[in-house]
Design brief:
Layout (H helix, E strand, L loop, with lengths): L2 H6 L3 H16 L15 E4 L7 E6 L4 H19 L5 E6 L5 H13 L2 H13 L1 H6 L1 H11 L4 H8 L2 H16 L7 E4 L2 E3 L9 H12 L3
Parallel strand pairs: 2-3
Antiparallel strand pairs: 1-3, 2-4, 4-5
Helix pairs in contact: 2-4, 2-9, 4-5, 4-8
């Protein structure tokens, strides 16, 4: 039995939930309406709610393109727009295969607390290959690094209320018409760079600056 299979078996409910999330994503339509509106469970950085420009990213800790975007574009985007409070950056979870592993990763990030949520998410993406091949070891290591004990990590990934909340967030994503990750929306309008792992800094900047320039 592989490490991923062993890990998924730790919580039958988690695996069932993740399968449901994947099915809902596959059945989602193409309407992007609603992707820019505030949603339950949003995790955010930068400008406060109500900012002139909101950038929403739908992503997964098991998505290779999401990890590539983080490696290649995140720091430049963060420095230019998040650290300067020019935009409100909102991250939304959309688990991708192996979905049970993604669900568990997001659960641990939330258990780490709002101040360390992004630290966990970014670390899992940075070490994505190890995370997918040996999720239990990786989650325990990352969880310990933000102050969670092994018992707390185990409790995070089997918490029924957390799994129900993950279901709700996935349903909200499908209602917004999001079917791929990473997906970026600037004030509700999707920004796409053809052939890339996500929008380029150039395309994101063009969309953001156009919104900032509006009266």
């Amino acid at each position: 039995m592989s490490a991923t299979t062993r890990y998924a078996a730790m919580s039958r409910r988690a695996a069932m939930t993740a399968a449901a999330l994947t099915a809902m994503v596959a059945l989602a339509g193409c309407n992007s309406g609603g992707a820019g509106a505030a949603a339950e469970g949003d995790m955010a950085m930068g400008a406060p709610e109500g900012a002139k420009v909101t950038v929403v990213e739908y992503a997964s800790v098991t998505c290779p393109h999401c990890a590539a975007w983080q490696d290649n574009t995140w720091e430049a985007f963060k420095t230019a727009y998040v650290d300067t409070n020019k935009v409100r950056y909102v991250f939304r979870e959309l688990p991708t295969p192996p979905a049970p592993v993604a669900v568990a990763g997001f659960a641990v990030a939330r258990c780490a607390g709002e101040d360390r949520y992004f630290q966990v998410v970014h670390e899992l993406m940075s070490d994505q290959r190890a995370f997918v091949s040996d999720p239990r070891t990786t989650l325990m290591r990352v969880g310990n690094g933000v102050g969670l004990s092994e018992q707390e990590v185990q409790a995070c990934i089997t918490d029924e209320a957390a799994l129900k909340a993950a279901d709700d967030r996935a349903q909200a994503a499908t209602k917004a018409g999001v079917t791929t990750t990473p997906a970026f929306f600037v004030n509700g309008t999707q920004v796409i760079t053809p052939g890339g792992e996500g929008p380029s800094m150039e395309d994101l900047s063009k969309a953001i600056e156009a919104e900032l320039a509006k009266g």
